[in-house]
Amino acid sequence: MPARPVVLVVVADTDPEEYRGYCLEQVAAAYDVVLITGSEPTWQRPHLIDYEVADPGDQAALSAAGRALAARHPLAGVMTWTEWYLVPVARLARQLGLPTTAPEAMQGCRNKAASRTLFARHGVPSAASASATTVAEAAAAAERIGYPAVLKPASHAASIGVIRVDHRAALDDAFAFTTRAAGRSSENPRVLVEEYLDGPEVSVECVSYRGVTAAVAVTRKTLSAPPLFEEIAHSVDATDPLLTTVAPAATAAVQALGITDGVSHAEVRLVDGRPRLIEVNGRIAGDMIGHLVHLATGIDLPRAAADIACGRAPNLTPTRISAAAIRLLYPDTSGTVAELNLDDAWQPWLERTVFQRRPGEKVLLPQDGGDGFTARLGYLITTGPTGALAQARAQAVQQHLVADITPN
After folding, report:
1. DSSP three-state, residue 327
2. What is the CATH number of domain 324-407?
3. How far apart are CA 271 and CA 268, in angstroms?
4. What residues contact 174, with CB distance under 8 A and at least 6 apart?
């Protein structure tokens, strides 16, 4: 039996099995996997043939670990689905002579200000944007752009630190909120002041191979109430007609950034029915969206990402016509979990229920200094013949959630 190709996967040691386990499992189904992560592997071990412990955010440490694994195994490719490591991993791939999108393109993808410049240069419809380091600069930019405006960190993800500002009186507090989040980034601690795009939000899951990009699915989103932009639900429908509307803008955005190879997640707002780009993440989407795509279409995005990393053409042929939805579970208040369960909610279309908190653990909402991760109780995934039905089923199951939180 011929040996399987070896792919190097670089991930954060905080990547939870609940959200990224399916990615590693699907890659390991076709490849021998070696891993670089920041601490000793735990749940990843059954999927690995080898590993190195190193800080992937430290380029020298990452490169040394990569060379050590390359000395022990004939690496065919290197990949990551961790947002913070896109640039270091692209540099590592280049050092090892393996296929990759250029590190410079990944830097433009990570820097939202640079992304806006590239979108404008290539005629991709986007949003007016300005960079600010002080409240005065932010106020001046908001006056030029107009209220409502959006403040966001220049180099973050998962809607962390993103907030809508409706008038000048709210700007100081909003700037402080975003600055706290932006300060966690070592890449770019600046704050962006942007035009508010009024309309429904979707994402487009894209796959690029040797400079050609295809949009394979559209994800419809449900957001929290203003002023925050926490994503609380997603759904994917294999036959969603919206894909043909948003695909041209999404693929143009990916190409404008110079992404030639890999899986990308393009976030779009529909303003008066026309797509406007929010940003592009140069990796598989979070919140189990790749799993929803697989349930709905049969397209395996983690496997596609591994194939591309190893210089192989991905298989993007749909094998299913279905739909799937995820509902992210949040409490009404910050505090300590006293009880958490689903009361008599089993159905054949309830694909999975995952609780991330146990009694005695704390949850912290964004308005209290937390974020979408510190606040989340877990999630549930439902399937159905249409996206609308899958979403309705998820909402129905959520009504059975028992979440008793003792406020702080």
Report:
1. strand
2. 3.30.470.20
3. 9
4. 151, 163, 165, 227
- Going from N- to C-terminal start, the domains of the chain cover 6-100, 128-195, 201-320, 324-407
Mean pLDDT of the chain: 94
Q: Which element (helix H / strand E) includes 156?
A: none
pLDDT tens digits, 362-381? 999 987 888 778 899 999 99
Angle at alpha carbon of residue 345, lines to 339 and 349, rounded to 5°: 135
Work out the average pLDDT over 94-112.
Answer: 96
Q: State the CB neighbour count (10 A cutoff) for residue 284.
A: 25
Instruction: Summarize pLDDT for 38-53 with one digit per residue, the tens.
Output: 999 999 999 999 999 9
The class that CATH gives domain 6-100 is alpha beta
Tokens of 191: 């704050």
Three-class DSSP labels, 218-248: EEEEEECCCCECCEEEEEEECCCCHHHHHHH
Q: Which of 192, 184, 118, 117 is nearest to 153 (CA)?
A: 192
Domain 201-320 adopts which CATH fold? D-amino Acid Aminotransferase; Chain A, domain 1 (3.30.470)
Do 201-320 and 324-407 come out as alike in CATH topology? yes
Return the closest-CA partner of residue 59 out of 42, 25, 36, 43. Answer: 36
Q: Which 8-state DSSP code applies to residue 44?
A: T
Give CA 224 to chain center in angstroms. 17
Domain 128-195 = CATH 2.40.37.10? no
Separation CA 333–CA 153 (nearest Å): 25
The per-residue pLDDT for range 272-323, each reduced to its tens digit, is: 999 999 999 999 999 999 999 999 999 999 999 999 999 999 999 999 999 9
Q: Tell me how far apart the alpha carbons of residues 368 and 362 are, in angstroms, rounded to a whole number.
A: 12
pLDDT at 185 over 60: no
Q: Which amino acid does the sequence have at 360? A: G
Q: Residue 129's pLDDT is what? A: 94
Q: Check the CA dihedral 366-368-374-378 and report its sign.
A: negative
User: Which DSSP string corresponds to 83-100?
Assistant: GGGHHHHHHHHHHTT---
Longest dimension (CA), the chain: 69
